[in-house]
Design a protein that fits this description.
GO terms for molecular function: arabinosyltransferase activity. By secondary structure, this protein is α/β, with parallel strands linked by helices. Helix content is about 30%, strand content about 15%.
Length: about 575
């Protein structure tokens, strides 16, 4: 090779190398651009601009992959509240009365169809080819396969997107779970195989739904939106007032329909808190029923939410909500919704229809949410009204302060005929005596403050004794039981609840000589010989005979030991 040809050859090779590198760069850039266009999702890019688009601009080809529990196929269920064996008691006449299947997780791919403008409904239908178990990642875009589908899934995780449709399904950011954050309890799979309603309780029917729940007051319906592929097919009828079996009472309660559905009216109002739906008609207006039918069950059902709960009331009684506004505001931070006057379609992630209720005026802590008890309720009521005393004053702690006795006075029935004699006897023992009455028109807040100042409260069986909820711990409740075999009902209504609240309880049954019935019937009448025999005539007869037409003339000598025992309860 000649000496002049070598440099030319070197320069040629260098030029060839530069061209090759340039070609590689161009081809590489082309491949990267092509890969970006193919793999990335233009729909997701559009949504990432601000998180959502108007309904009319939303792409209709978005596929939602959701993990759901597929409950077993169940037959359609229909039930009513009117069952035999109810307890229609109204205690105080002085107040106005008005097959499990196998649980498994299955992921279905769903396509969100365009809403029908004529029906106002949106239907979720499963993909025809959406079978088999897929990745747990929630993805947007087309059905990527293999590595390409996996990459699409990871790209989608970076955005939490609320789809602009009436179904309002949300694609959750799975990074929350990976970072240790718990699921917020709103996924459509949370209901699992659990039925929407539980009608097994003898006193109250309750429905509870978690997921996409639509409350439509105008249609008196609550709809649980079924995940695609679900075999759930449920229809329930419920009257949300805890007097199951009392046909007279429930005849005044609006019946609601609870059902599972794949179609529903468009949401017009969204809520971030759970909902509790209940009725206020029934026997409310009687102090005892205000508490046993509403206040205690509402506390049991709603207190776990610490005020973050929305109340929807069917059969609204505005005067009642005004009377008990202090308690209602403690249980819910949100304005009440009058179910009968509301035309919105409310969307919730957690809805309870009806109230948890057990025996009269009590909480069964073994069944109640978070094992709530009557001690908790007593504490709650004292706190709601900002009452100063949590427990009674020990006798002798303040030498100049006498223990206080409150006597509940009645005006029409079951009155004390010798009240002055009773007061004198109590003062002689060492009590400071306070006389007051409790009825439907009483100022609850004012009466609660009075009750909380006493150590002993006594009265004849009746709704006024319900005020024991304001007594401090270790106080004593004394119930005077009229003649007529009413010991069992008296203990059930007030004795057991008082003891469960942490109070001392004494029950005093009057004798024939202490009853005004001796002025109406001869002493050899069957009503004195065997009063229990009259119970077969039903509660209305019992009420009219032994409650409405009977007063009490207390034998102070016979009753004195009861007050002495109450005094002893104040000793350390």
């Amino acid at each position: 090779m000649k000496s002049g040809e070598r440099p030319k050859l070197v320069r040629g090779l260098r030029q060839e190398s530069r061209r090759f590198r340039l070609l590689v760069i161009v081809v590489g850039f082309f491949l990267v651009s092509l890969t970006f266009v193919v793999i990335s999702k233009p729909d997701a890019i559009l949504f990432s601009l601000n998180g959502k688009l108007p309904v009319e601009q939303a792409p209709t080809s978005i596929l939602i992959k959701q993990k759901v529990n597929s409950p077993p196929a169940t037959s359609r269920k229909t039930s009513t509240d009117a069952l035999p064996g109810g307890d229609p008691r109204v205690v105080d006449d002085e107040a106005d009365v008005r097959p499990k299947g196998t649980k498994g997780e299955e992921e279905e791919s769903r396509v969100l169809s365009e809403p029908d403008p004529t029906s106002g409904m949106t239907e979720l239908t499963p993909n025809k080819d959406g079978g088999g178990r897929k990745s747990d990642e929630e993805t947007l875009g087309g059905e990527g396969k293999g590595k390409e589908g996996e990459e699409r899934g990871h790209a989608a995780e970076k955005h939490k997107v609320t789809l602009p449709t009436v179904s309002n399904y949300t694609i959750h950011d799975t990074e929350d779970t990976e970072n240790g954050k718990q699921d917020d309890g709103t996924g459509p799979d949370l209901q699992g195989s659990k039925p929407l309603c539980d009608f097994s309780n003898f006193r109250a029917n309750v429905c509870e739904m978690r997921g996409d729940v639509r409350v439509h007051p105008n249609a008196t319906s609550i709809m649980f939106m079924e995940p695609a592929g679900s075999q759930r097919d449920e229809l329930w009828k419920i009257k949300p007032y805890p007097r199951k079996g009392d046909e007279f009472c429930l005849s005044h309660i609006t019946e609601l329909t609870v059902k599972s559905s794949k179609v529903a009216p468009e949401c017009t109002k969204y809520h971030d808190v759970p909902a509790v739906i209940f009725s206020l008609t029934g026997y409310t207006g009687n102090l005892f029923h205000d508490f046993t039918d509403v206040m205690v069950p509402l506390f049991t059902t709603a207190s776990e939410f610490n005020g973050e709960v929305q109340f929807l009331i069917t059969d609204m009684a505005l005067w009642w909500t005004i009377k008990y506004h202090t308690v209602l505001q403690k249980l819910s931070k949100y304005p009440l919704i009058d179910f009968s006057k509301d035309d919105q379609v409310h969307c919730f992630k957690h809805v309870i229809v009806g109230l948890h209720a057990y025996m009269e005026f009590t909480i069964d802590s073994s069944k109640a949410p978070h094992n709530y008890s009557m001690v908790d309720f007593n504490r709650f009521m004292r706190g709601a009204y900002s009452l100063g005393r949590d427990t009674v004053t020990v006798l002798g702690e303040y030498p100049k302060v006498k223990p206080r006795l409150l006597i509940i006075k009645r005006h029409r029935t079951r009155m004390f005929l010798n009240l002055d004699e009773i007061i004198a006897m109590a003062k002689e023992i060492g009590f400071e005596v306070v006389i007051d009455e409790a009825n439907v028109s009483s100022d609850i807040s004012k009466f609660a403050r009075l009750v909380n100042t006493v150590d002993v409260m006594m009265g004849v069986h009746g709704a006024g004794l319900t005020n024991c909820v304001f007594l401090p711990q270790n106080a004593t409740l004394i119930q005077i039981v009229p003649w007529g075999g009413l010991e069992w009902v008296s203990r059930t209504d007030f004795g057991n609840p008082a003891e469960l609240m942490g109070l001392h309880y004494k029950q005093y049954s009057i004798s024939v000589d202490e009853s005004s019935l001796t002025e109406q019937y001869p002493r050899d009448h069957e009503i004195f010989k065997n009063p229990i025999a009259f119970h077969k005539h039903g509660f209305d007869f019992i009420r009219q005979t032994f409650m409405d037409k009977q007063n009490v003339k207390l034998d102070c000598k016979r009753f004195r030991p009861i007050l002495l025992e109450a005094l002893d309860n104040l000793n350390p």
